[in-house]
């Protein structure tokens, strides 16, 4: 069956067609319109500008996704849309568009949680992958560990208590003058520096918890930069990039290893925008090998926000019977009212 996936939770408008059957998943199209160049002028995402750019792009992108897939709307079995979490104004554009499209054409509408969609990207690149497994979601807004018990049942066993890994990368990138978003630029620059040059605190919290905190690391890096500037010395950007990356990668690796040992899972999925980080990918390969587990990580093109991952998550939600009514609303929250566990009656009652 063909699923049309629509994504607009942050600064990428995307529409994709994915063909999914029991043992098959094929990306028929995955069109992404990035707003990065626009937001770069401001050093970060400007929510109002993001919403307006989604409105301008979403219709054309959807036509393009259908044309590239070589299908018409009448062949679409379900429309899947990111309905939470994210920037509320941005989400509303995709949700409202998907609702209109689905209900005007009598196509089932499936709401998708963006975090689950990041994990679902792995099904597209790894056909053997099946729950249960451990998922490490590292993105601009999230840093969490999940027990993925089934395609739709996720239990969060660890999470950041403040900033996300991507946010932490972007913040320091901006302060040392790298273009937004800083994550990819720091990834590259880190190869030129010494990861042990600057001692920084780990984002892995001490003790038995699987939680993280990035605020101490961010503050320590900012203090280091300010001290350099006060002393009139140049900030050693490559060493800072390498040391900062080292702290984040080691912190995520430490909690991933602890989670694998605690749960006993033999498969770990790394997902989200920060999963594109080459140092993190290499380090988690080693963690998996040490735990005799298998690492599944989507190609870089599926790590950032895209419609194909939304369609893939939507397919499994569709199979689980999850549907939205016309009252579907966007939610900025990680756990919107209609999820946890998913209740169709939430829509029927309202
Ligand atoms: O998943 P995503 O596209 O959007 C959210 O759902 O938040 O993630 C975007 C984040 C940004 O913070 C960006 O800097 C980060 O992913 N990112 C990276 C890399 N590529 C993108 N962080 C570290 N290394 C990279 N190579
Ligand atoms: Zn994302």
CATH homologous superfamily placement of the largest domain: ATPase, nucleotide binding domain
Q: Under the CATH scheme, which class of the largest domain?
A: Alpha Beta
Biggest sheet overview = 5 strands, mixed
The span between the termini is 30 Å
**Strand-pairing-aware structural class:** alpha/beta
Number of strands: 10
Order of strands across the main sheet: 3-2-1-4-5
Instruction: Describe the global form.
Output: globular
Helical element count? Answer: 12
State the low-pLDDT regions, or none. Answer: none
Total tally of structural domains: 2
Order of helices and strands: EEEHHEHEHEEEHHHHEHEHHH
* Share in helix: 40-55%
The CATH architecture name of the largest domain reads 2-Layer Sandwich
Global mean pLDDT: 96
Which ligands does the model contain, each kind named once? 5'-O-[(R)-(carboxyoxy)(hydroxy)phosphoryl]adenosine, zinc ion
Q: Which range does the strand content fall in?
A: 15-25%
Describe the structure.
The chain is of the alpha/beta class and 350 residues long. It folds into two domains: 2-120 and 303-339, Nucleotidyltransferase, domain 5 (2-Layer Sandwich), CATH 3.30.420; 127-297, 2-Layer Sandwich (Nucleotidyltransferase, domain 5). The protein contains twelve helices and ten strands. It has a five-stranded mixed sheet, with helices on both faces. Helix 2 (47-69) packs parallel to helix 3. The longest helix has 27 residues, at 237-263. The protein starts with a strand and ends with a helix. The protein binds 5'-O-[(R)-(carboxyoxy)(hydroxy)phosphoryl]adenosine and zinc ion.
